[in-house]
Specification:
Blueprint lengths: L8 H10 L12 H14 L3 E6 L4 E6 L22 E7 L8 H10 L3 E8 L2 E12 L5 E9 L1 H6 L2 H19 L8 E6 L7 H10 L2 E7 L13 H14 L3 E4 L5 H11 L2 E4 H12 L3 H15 L7 H7 L10 H38 L3 E7 L5 H9 L16 E6 L5 E6 L9 H6 L1 H9 L2 E7 L5 H15 L6 E6 L20 E3 L8 H15 L1 E7 L5 H9 L1 E8 L2 E8 L1 H6 L7
Parallel strand pairs: 3-4, 7-8, 7-9, 9-10, 11-13, 11-14, 14-15, 15-16
Antiparallel strand pairs: 1-2, 1-3, 4-5, 5-6, 12-13, 17-19, 18-19
Helix pairs in contact: 1-2, 3-7, 6-9, 9-10, 10-12
Length: 589
Amino acid sequence: MDNKSGIKKTLINQLEDLKNESVDKDLFANEKIIDSICEITEKTGKEIAVFINRKGEVLDVEIGDGDTVTLKDLAGRRSEDSLSGIRVLHTHPNGSGMLSNVDLSALKKLKFDMMAAVGVEDGEASEIYISFLGVDDEHDFIPLIAGPYTKERLMKLNVKAVISEAEENIKNVVKTSKAVEIDEERAVLVGVENEEALEELRELLKTAGGKELSRMVQSRDKKDTAFFIGKGKLKELGLLVQTVDANLVVFDEELSGAQIRNLEQALGVKVIDRTQLILDIFAQRAKSREGKLQVELAQLKYAMPRLVGLGEQMSRTGGGIGTRGPGEKKLEIDRRRIRDRVNDLQNEIKEIKKQRGIQRVSRESGNVFQACLVGYTNAGKSTMLNSLADANIYAMDQLFATLDPTTRKVTLESGKEVLITDTVGFIKKLPHELVEAFKSTLEEVLFADLLIHVVDGSNKDYEQQIKVVLEVLKELGAENKHMVTVINKIDKLESTDAIEVHGTKESPVLFVSALNKNGFPELLKEIEKAAASKSRVAELMVPYTDASVPSMIHNNCRVLEEDYREDGIYIKAEMDPITYGRLIKYLIV
């Protein structure tokens, strides 16, 4: 029995005595139990709960506060198609016996046989409502409520028949749901800014396959070292989790291992933070070997500093590796294994990076112009590349729909071929581990000749998203690259007048719809202009004695015209500045 603070010893003893009471197994409770809990509720202003098994034995008595009382799961091992074998009688100090959402959620979650709430007025039971589990048309559990009852009528109620009916309902639901996946992640979202800030977290959860049931926001400057949120909010969060029957809590901020452990112990459900959620999405989305290696590397780097706080989780998932349990010896083994795996992953990624470097040199020597699509996640980059290249890249209206970078060839109006690469989308509070892990992939941004910054113009937070992308580009060292800003999804806007993004002659702002290709002529012209600025067209006369030069020109330039003349081979070609410098002696002035 917890929460005894401020209660007289005589009242505590009175409650302890109730554990010696026995109740007729066919009846809900006896008069002494009802009278005692009403009297103590009147004197303390606190809720009192009594747990009774099917033999009529009082298993436990709990003291709550003026609003709630913890309803414990006291059931032993029972099959999934059985009730807990426990009925609960508890008081409401406000005089109302109507069962609260928290009460009904506990009934459903803990599969109590029955639950009764006693409204207390002047130390007496004023009204009593009871509830047990029923089934709706979709074969889901629903609490059925009956009442109000008087004390005398409740004590005459034969609970055996009610419990039998409820048990039958349980069996029907379990039988129906056996072929259905019931392990859905049902989450409460927690933030420290405002509710609007949690909209993106909701989209992340949806992308990961979870479902938001509710959310909670706390405004405080100083984060609690043990629980991140304050004790009052923690209690409120616990009630919310119970009320909506959530099995997951997601924080919009990064948590320490100790905070995750403490929160899970206090709430009784799994707790993750924003970083873990994003890492989970990346793990689902990675298809290439490099992408999978990078995600694993990021996950290990995230886990490393949290091993002590996540000791219990490590011991549960570690199998038989090392010694059993979360002791220091096992943690040291985990650390060493993680360090070894991190080194292996970094070496593998280094090799892939080397191969990409060789491919890049090949492209550069071939005078291939490369543009990179960058932008906030779900800005429409994949759809943009599909439309530009008539490709069929996976593109969905969800965060991080594509993870691995994809390159496609696009032929411009002039006939010049350019390469356009779709890169992973950025997001605010992008986990540092991911930025580090994906730097090798994002190096494509550094070596691109042009960045096409795709912005979702239909998103009300587009200005903040632009800021996030520019910050990540700065972190990568690409803030001074030649860039065109493309305001996408104008098909969703009535007018573009409200979009306040100003460009320059060198860095223009264009309005397009990647879906229906509106604004594409202007975009292609900008790409053409940027490609032309990298190369130049030159007319050459190559003597027949320099037989290797025409072959070199064909390998490194785009030949526009060629003619065998009396004094040599006339070649008109588009080339990069380096090749131009090597051929300058053949220029026709």
